[in-house]
TrEMBL record:
Native source organism of the sequence: Spongiactinospora gelatinilytica
Pfam families membership: MerR_1 (PF13411)
Family annotation (PROSITE patterns): HTH_MERR_2
Protein name, as recorded: MerR family transcriptional regulator
SUPFAM superfamilies from the UniProt entry: Putative DNA-binding domain (SSF46955)
Region (Disordered): 1-44
Single Gene Ontology BP annotation: regulation of DNA-templated transcription
Length: 132
């Protein structure tokens, strides 16, 4: 059977370019990157591996497996630690839901990617309809 490469991670269209997460006097936050703005940004990588696992009620190994399956690709801090966004936590939560229902992990990830792509296509269609 000829298998195609997996689709890009569902979070990839929303993920910010890889950048340094830590801000310092030598590397200040860019204008417009205020703490208030980051609180509203669902793509801001605010959660550590441990905190993300705790919030979702999963193990860090489960979150790593989602990365290996290309569902989510967490950003890395300067120290190399994985950092997750609220959007990625929603995807991981959906994956856990499907896996808990008996869906194999790889299939659950594919389902979520397709759901995300469909939602994006519907959003674009609605936007185009409003323009007409």
């Amino acid at each position: 059977m000829n298998q195609t490469a997996p689709a890009p991670a569902a979070g990839s269209r929303r993920e910010r370019p890889r950048h340094t997460l830590a801000k310092s006097a030598d590397n200040p936050a860019p204008s417009g990157d205020s703490p208030e703005r980051r609180l509203d940004d669902e793509d801001y990588p605010a959660y550590s591996m441990g905190r993300a696992a705790e919030i979702l009620g999963v193990t860090p190994a489960f979150l790593r497996s989602l990365g290996a399956a290309k569902l989510i690709e967490p950003l890395r801090s300067e120290g190399g630690h994985r950092r997750f966004s609220r959007y990625q936590l929603r995807l991981a939560s959906r994956a856990r839901e499907l896996v808990d229902q008996g869906t194999p992990l790889e299939a659950a990830c594919r389902i979520i990617i397709l759901e995300d792509q469909l939602a994006e296509a519907l959003r674009i269609n609605e936007e185009l309809r409003r323009r007409d």
